[in-house]
Amino acid sequence: MHEWALAEAIVEAVCGYLSKRGVNRVASLKVAVGELQSVDEGILRFAVEELFKGRGVEVSSLVFEKEPAVFRCNSCGRTWRLEDLGIPEDAREAIHFIPEVFHVFTRCPHCGSQDLEIIQGRGVYIGSLEL
Amino acid sequence: MDPRPLIISERLKEVKRVLAVVSGKGGVGKTLVASTMALALAERRMPVGLLDLDVTNPSCHVVLGVEPSKETPPEDMGVLPVSVHGLKFMSLAFYTRGEALPLRGAGVDDVFKELLAITRWGMLEALILDTPPGFGDVILDIANYIPGVGFIAVTTPSRLSVESLRRLAKTHLGGRVVGVIVNMAWKGYIPEDLGKTGFKLLTIIPYYPDLEACLGNPGMLLKTEFAKKIDEALNLLLK
After folding, report:
1. Using one digit for the tens of pLDDT, what is the confidence trace for A68-108?
2. Theoretical Cys-Cys bridge with A121: which of A19, A66, A67, B153, CB 3.0 to 4.6 Å?
3. Nearest residue, CB atoms, B102 vs list A17, A94, A114
């Protein structure tokens, strides 16, 4: 249930933003969910909704948007998608907790370097917030 | 918007004191100092945590005798540190299976925030942080996201190492230093330039060639002269 920790972070950040403005209502909140972290969107949504309820914050529209993971090799400059990486199944749980550990389990499919960069789709962040 | 920074202070709200073991140069004994300090506090029956923040190359687990591929931090609304030898321990090694993690600065910053955002320490008297050498991303993140942190600077008597402490004193991080440990000192030698830093001297630890044999055996480590010197430093710090 690591998703609860991520949900708490989202709710804490939004509540911090709202308290500075003296409001407790959000018209629209978009949360980007990076493909690499393999977050369970259902649990994350449930946790975020429950935590907002507990804080007395009303969110009219809560949208979770999946962001495909894209990587770049700092050695050869090529880019590719998650499915091209061939990450072993038993490494996925470690990556779920700390996405950067994917560096341990994979290399650039073109040149073999481990000097890789996540261009997008790493983890969870707040895409947009409208009051 | 990155949601993690605000939750970090929430995760540490029941931690009374955070002490980061830092140094300008590598190979001065930070990991052994940090690990022994945490073990010595646990020996005093204090609730204590040890967080290995040498993210690209963690090694506190080697001192503690923990095999990272055989342990997994339990999940409970986040992750819980692993209980070992009376202390709570968290390291990236649990997720890298003990292998090196080649990372650039942005990746190091992300790992720092993620680890601090998801780890639930609970109530602690002290949380000891082991750090990589130098004054890079991890040290800057610690200073930015853990406002009450105190730095314990470790140096050898070598001018190369002491000079880096003098430089540290002149940065915005200098005010965080709560004391200095001189490690691997030959014949009790104290470098003259140490006085120029203005830092408080906590203890001088001689070079103990047999200490290597205690790695992985905390019980044996705690019986060494090295551990007694760390206790001396703790007495001054906890006054």
Report:
1. 999 999 999 999 999 888 788 888 889 999 999 999 998 99
2. A67
3. A114
CATH label of the domain that carries residue A30: 3.30.2320.80
* Inter-chain touch A74–B104, beta carbons under 8 Å: yes
Question: The domain containing residue A28 runs over which residues?
Answer: 2-130
Query: pLDDT tens for residues B8-65?
Result: 999 999 999 999 999 999 999 999 999 999 999 999 999 999 999 999 999 999 999 9
Which CATH number belongs to the domain containing residue B37 in this structure?
3.40.50.300
Closest by CA position to B148, among listed B169, B179, B127 = B127
Say which of A2, A115, A122 has its CB closest to residue B79.
Answer: A2
pLDDT at B188: 63
Nearest to B102 among A103, A122, A123 (CB): A103
Does the beta-carbon distance from B79 to A100 stay under 8 Å? no
Query: In terms of residue numbers, what domain contains B67?
Result: 4-238
Give the total number of structural domains in chain B: 1
Q: How far is CA A102 from CA A38, A118, B207, B239, in A?
A: 12, 10, 39, 44
Instruction: State how far the Cα of B52 lies from the Cα of B59, in Å rounded to an integer.
Output: 8
Judged by a CB distance cut-off of 8 A, whether residue A126 touches chain B is yes
The total of structural domains in chain A comes to: 1
